[in-house]
Write a structure and sequence with these properties.
Radius of gyration: 21 Å
Strand content: 15-25%
Structural class: alpha/beta
Order of helices and strands: EEHHEHEEHEHEHEHHEH
Distance between the termini: 82 Å
Strand order of the largest sheet: 3-4-5-6-7-8-9
Low-confidence stretches: 1-14
CATH superfamily of the largest domain: 2-enoyl-CoA Hydratase, Chain A, domain 1
Number of domains: 2
Shape: globular
């Protein structure tokens, strides 16, 4: 018998045309996922999106201006594990095309001038180093000076271990800046996405006048295994999900991504009278 040949009419499927949902495992047409703000049409799973994509989705007409984009991380501890910290920073910048784990921008949402910070999880796990702390603090100070509402979108694994105590200091630094906003009665809205953990959760991510979370987002300080070993108790199922935290008063509202802008506009109109 002759060797079986591929039919001449075979179609080669372009790479990236389909995507597999991490939750329901369905294979989905990628343009359909994009149309739904990167949400699975089958089960509602929220795929990761970049900081710049969030700006384009939330700001009116996708128009915004970045600021403090020149502030970059150094290597105060000359840290090295499997790689040098400065090499990790370089690799993260090449991968994400941004120079830190948070971007600051200003623009309008629903016609209201706002300051918006969005964390970039793909940059060393969205970890909070000195520059993340500095940029968010500057954003809060700008919001205070210009009397504009502050919105922070968190996506982080927590403090950046390569900067040690310098990273942990950012928790108090940012919290102090947010406290000054509260004294001035300027709204701060916190948006928690998957994941929001560690020192970020233990500080500014949970300090919003309104705390909003995306469905199914992992939100917590330490991992379940560490907590169970510490308190010597079995934890309830799903206790670190957005829905569980809403049920127990830690999150005010859980909002689908395609409804987020509408929700923000309504909240801003209720809270803000410039």
């Amino acid at each position: 018998m002759s060797e079986e040949k591929r039919p001449s009419g075979s179609i080669k499927v372009p790479e990236g045309l389909w995507v597999k949902c991490k939750k329901c495992k369905e294979i989905i047409y990628y343009k359909e996922v994009q149309r739904l703000a990167n949400v699975c049409p089958k089960c509602g799973f929220h795929f990761y999106i970049s900081a710049k994509m969030r700006f384009e989705m939330l700001f009116d007409d996708g128009k915004y201006e970045l600021f403090d984009n020149y502030v970059i991380s150094l290597d105060p501890l000359k840290f090295k594990d499997r790689k040098k910290y400065k090499d990790r920073l370089k690799e993260a910048e090449e991968k994400t095309k941004v120079n830190e784990a948070v971007l600051n921008a200003e623009g309008k949402i629903g016609g209201i001038d706002v300051i918006l910070c969005a964390m970039e999880y793909e940059f060393i796990g969205g970890s909070m180093g000195s520059v993340v702390g500095e940029k968010i603090t500057r954003a809060a100070e700008k919001a205070l000076k210009e009397r504009k509402p502050l919105i922070i979108i968190s996506a982080s694994g927590g403090a950046r271990m390569q900067e040690g105590i310098f990273s942990l200091m950012q928790m108090a630094k940012i919290s102090s800046a947010i406290a000054r906003l509260k004294e001035a009665k300027i709204p701060y809205i916190s948006i928690l996405t998957d994941p929001t953990t560690g020192g970020v959760t233990a500080s500014y991510a949970m300090q919003g006048d309104i705390n909003i979370a995306e469905p199914g987002a992992l939100i917590g300080f330490a991992g379940p295994r560490v907590i169970e070993q510490t308190i010597k108790q079995k934890l309830p199922e799903g206790f670190q999900t957005a829905e569980f935290l809403q049920e127990h008063g830690m999150v005010d509202i859980v909002v689908q991504r395609n409804k987020l802008k509408e929700t923000l506009v309504n909240i801003l109109k209720l809270l803000w009278m410039p």
